[in-house]
Specification:
The complex is a heterodimer of chains A (317) and B (429).
Chain A (H helix, E strand, L loop, with lengths): L1 H37 L12 E5 L5 E5 L10 H8 L5 H30 L6 H13 L2 H11 L6 H8 L11 H29 L3 H9 L4 H12 L1 H16 L3 H7 L10 H10 L5 H28 L5
Antiparallel strand pairs in A: 1-2
Helix pairs in contact in A: 1-13, 3-7, 3-10, 4-7, 5-11, 7-10, 7-11, 10-13, 12-13
Chain B lengths: L1 E3 L2 H12 L20 E7 L7 H14 L3 E7 L2 H14 L6 E5 L2 H7 L20 H5 L2 E2 L2 E2 L1 E8 L1 E5 H6 L9 H15 L2 E4 L4 H10 L5 E2 L4 E2 L4 H15 L3 E2 L6 H10 L3 E6 L4 H6 L9 E4 L10 E10 L8 H11 L2 H11 L12 H4 L2 H11 L1 E2 L11 H13 L4 H16 L6
Parallel strand pairs in B: 2-3, 2-4, 9-12, 9-13, 15-16
Antiparallel strand pairs in B: 4-15, 5-6, 7-15, 8-13, 8-14, 10-11
Helix pairs in contact in B: 8-9, 9-16, 16-17
The chains are: A mainly alpha (317), B alpha/beta (429).
Chain lengths: 317, 429
């Protein structure tokens, strides 16, 4: 009876959300569920078929049951990955943390600096804004290749300049630290425009009265920046830092194209390492799903802690 | 084993009979009028679109002079992408080409997945004995044949004749020790670098084969990549870099650096294959073919051995059987001795047919005659579906040993561990 009344009263609401639920189910929940399921099997390209058919050009078709069709293997994949039997999970994870932290910190600080500079009246402000957006407008792979070439050990710009001023050229890709540095520099160049635009937008929503009041109270420019601008940017900052972290953590193209994990895969991050492990040669779908689930879990845990930390500071988000 | 002879096949057989390429009378189609063959075929060519593609397109045009109604849709697919692209399309059962130029190591892998037509019993294999055995062997999987060799190749020692004469070296070095001495002489007399070894697994195989080693023993199902022979071979390569005889390769884009340095005449010797001959020939700074010396790969303590490479023509298993006759005619034309001679003359690619070497165009080619002994000594790689996966760990090993100067034994042990864990778990290590 109560259920009936509930339905009578709210049916239209359910009818309204039904399309959204259906779309989410098809686009998000089904693939996600299937990915998680695959990580508990040993599915690869070679064992996905129940029978392998060999067609002969003369017309026959010979089908045999696949001798090792895929099966449920429980948490074997996770054990293999986490114990380091397959791939270098912990090494990649460590590099990913360095990479993410370095990139996001540089993005944020440089973006904030540029946004502050552009948030005042100066000649040619429009031109500067356009120029600073430019790295964002160039397709990422184009700039990645350009940077890779600039770091080329024999013919690249940096080493030519270094030898030109009498220094030894650097073998950028021969050590994982300098190799990672090349990727971080590229990504900083690529990622600063987004931070700058987002923070500039945030700065323009801060009421000018606050600055006037601070000025009347005798606040120095630095005090105005710390006590008015930064608190005013807080909601924007928390969001772009969370987004930036997740994007950088999962940023495949820069590592893959700029340093290619050089040397010998030592500067690989989780996503590129997982790609090489799972998609070179006969593709390993179950292993790829395992890495996918692990990366998702890491980012979920991070987001939960991040939100909690923010809530403690009284931020409603 | 179950043979599926459904009604479909019966109708197909009818269709085949109509195009006169019946099951067992393969020879008949030569007598039919080529004009009666009508089909649209897609061909993925993975050759270099700038250096090699135009010659292949010329061949297609020649084919159409005889078979005007077989339309070949020529698509140039970058070599680096073709393997994954083909597998994705073949697994989805749509969008894969009817005919593919497949690298030798891909064929067993595709065949094991059921992506290729077995060609046994067709006209294509009627004169199988005319093909060299080593390139042909890459098409065999589980007793069936899945492709026809297009070109074969192998690594050789390419050298700059001018730098050699400037340094007073008259003959190409025959052993790695002689290479080392020659490099020192070149460095001393001309100031140029002697040798560049690309930091890639494939390019270390001559060192490994030279000591009598191999990656795996496919017949005994054993991983032998960390054998003492291999350690000795890789140590020779490392010593060449360490002693300064060879340039220290960069860890990223080693291959491109090698080619640029060689074309700009900054390094005298490289280990590379015939596929770069056209590239070197066209480089304005190099001085043309007259300046290019080709010699067999130097030998180690056991022998001189270099890995066989090359490409095969294969047919996608989902191509409608009605197009089989046209596809066979096309591949037959493309892999004929005359077509191979045409490619040899134009591009310096090595024919896979013995009879092609008797044709004047091939006989008179300096490049081919230089590479011929290299091909005769080429070593077959283990043709197993996992063959393509051997090179990921091996490339890492090459970088560790040549660039980072790590201990060859330790690096090869790591490779063996990866083969066991990720590539061939059923093999003994």
């Amino acid at each position: 009876m109560r259920l009936r009344r509930f339905w009578d009263r709210y049916w239209y609401a359910w009818a309204m959300v039904a399309p959204v639920v259906a779309v989410l189910a098809v686009l998000i929940f089904y693939p996600l569920g299937r990915g998680i399921w695959l990580s508990f099997t040993n599915l690869t390209e070679a064992n996905q078929l129940e029978e392998i058919c060999t067609r002969s050009i003369t017309g026959e078709e010979d089908c045999q049951p696949n001798p090792n069709a895929y099966e449920f293997v429980g948490v074997d994949n996770y054990i293999h990955v986490l114990r380091g039997d397959v791939g270098e999970f912990w090494q990649w994870f460590g590099v990913t943390l360095i990479w993410t932290f370095a990139c996001v910190v540089c993005h944020y600080l440089i973006g904030l600096g540029l946004a502050t500079m552009l948030n005042r009246r100066l000649r040619g402000r429009g031109l500067y804004r356009v120029l600073l957006i430019l790295p964002w407008a160039v397709p990422a792979f184009v700039s990645a290749f350009a940077w890779r070439f600039m770091f080329n050990e024999r013919f690249g710009l940096f080493n030519v300049v270094l030898s030109g001023i009498g220094l030894d050229p650097v073998a950028w890709f021969a050590d994982w630290r300098t190799s990672l540095l090349t990727a971080i520099l590229t990504n900083v160049w690529l990622g600063v425009p987004f931070m700058m635009v987002a923070l500039l937008g945030g700065m323009q929503t801060i009421p000018a009265e606050l600055y006037e009041a601070a000025e009347i109270d005798g606040a120095t420019p630095w005090q105005r920046f710390v006590n008015v601008t930064l608190p005013g940017l807080r909601s924007v900052s928390t969001t772009v830092i969370l987004l930036g972290t997740i994007w950088t953590f999962n940023l495949f193209s820069v590592i893959y194209l700029v340093n290619a994990g050089a040397p010998a895969g030592q500067s690989e991050i989780l996503v590129t390492g997982a790609f090489r492990a799972a998609f070179q040669g006969i593709r390993n779908y179950s292993l790829a799903s395992t890495y996918g689930v692990l990366i998702l879990s890491i980012l979920l845990v991070y987001s939960v802690f991040y939100r909690r930390a923010l809530r403690k500071h009284g931020e409603v988000w | 084993m179950r043979i599926r002879t459904a009604g479909v096949v019966a109708t197909l057989a009818l269709a085949l009979a109509a195009t006169a390429c019946g099951n067992d009378k393969a020879g008949d189609s030569t007598t039919t009028d080529p004009r009666s063959l009508t089909a649209d075929l897609t061909w993925w060519d993975t050759s270099d679109p700038k250096n090699e593609g135009p010659a292949f397109q010329e061949l297609v045009a020649k084919f159409n002079q005889t078979y005007p109604n077989v339309h070949i849709k020529y698509e140039s697919v970058p070599f680096g992408e073709a393997q994954n692209k083909f597998k994705t399309a073949a697994a989805a059962k749509s969008g894969a080409p009817d005919i593919l130029r497949a690298e030798v190591a891909w064929v067993p892998e595709f065949a094991s997945l059921g992506y290729l037509y077995a060609l046994d019993g067709s006209e294509l294999l009627a004169d199988e004995s005319d093909f060299f055995a080593t390139p042909m062997s890459s098409n065999k999987f589980n007793g069936k044949t899945y492709g026809v060799p297009q070109v074969t190749d192998s690594l050789a020692l390419l050298y700059n004749k001018k730098i050699f004469s400037d340094a007073g070296i008259t003959a190409a070095p025959k052993t790695w020790a002689e290479v080392k001495t020659a490099a020192a002489t070149i460095k001393g007399k001309t100031g140029k670098d002697g040798l560049f070894i690309n930091a890639g697994g494939y390019f270390l195989l001559p060192f490994i084969y030279g000591e009598g080693g191999d990656l795996v023993d496919a017949s005994a199902k054993k991983i032998v990549v960390n054998s003492s022979q291999n350690v000795a071979g890789v140590t020779i390569a490392q010593d060449l870099v360490r002693s300064g005889a060879a340039v220290k390769p960069p860890a990223n884009d080693s291959y491109g650096t090698m080619m640029t340095l060689f074309k700009e005449q900054k390094v005298a010797m490289i280990i590379n294959g015939p596929w770069e001959v056209n590239n070197v020939k066209g480089a304005p700074s190099f001085g043309g073919l007259d300046n290019l010396g080709i010699a067999a790969v130097p030998s180690g303590s056991a022998k001189a051995g270099s890995p066989v490479g090359g490409h095969n023509y294969v047919i996608w298993s989902q191509m409608p059987q009605a197009k089989a006759a046209a596809a066979i005619a096309f591949i037959k034309f493309m892999s004929s001795a005359e077509s191979q001679a045409f490619l040899a003359e134009k591009l310096g690619l090595l024919p896979t047919r013995k009879s092609a070497y008797d044709l004047p165009a091939v006989k008179n080619s300096a490049i081919i005659s230089a590479f011929k002994p290299v091909i005769d000594a080429a070593v077959a790689r283990p043709w197993i579906p996992e063959g393509g996966q051997f090179f990921g760990p091996l490339d890492q090993m090459a970088t560790e040993v040549l660039v980072q100067n790590k201990d060859p034994k330790a690096s090869l042990d790591t490779v063996a561990g990866k083969y066991k864990a990720e590539v061939v778990p059923s093999y003994a290590s």
